[in-house]
Amino acid sequence: MGKLKGLDWLALILAIIGGLNWGLVGLFNLDVVRTLFGEMSPLSRIIYTLVGLAAIWMVGISGKLARK
Questions:
Q1: The total number of structural domains that make up the chain
Q2: CA distances from 55 to 10, 11, 28, 38, 49 (A)
Q3: 12-33: burial string, b at 16+ Cβ within 10 Å, e else
Q4: Residues 19-64: pLDDT tens digits?
Q5: Which of 4, 14, 16, 38 could form a disulfide linkage to 8, CB 3.0–4.6 angstroms apart?
Q6: Could you give the CA distance from residue 24 to residue 68 in angstroms, rounded to a whole number?
């Protein structure tokens, strides 16, 4: 049974942050990333991309998480 490595933890944290942001969008129409960094600014796009990549990474390690 493999342990979670640093990149796994980073992906998990980013995926949780992204999920919380989408929850706020759905409940209150509040996009924290857009509010902090501007609508589709280069930094916002980087953050959205990193969250998306983290979600893909989490799909890849979901088997490891399921065995824990």
A1: 1
A2: 11, 7, 23, 22, 10
A3: bebbebbeebeeeeeeeeebeb
A4: 999 999 999 999 999 999 999 999 999 999 999 999 999 999 988 7
A5: 4
A6: 30
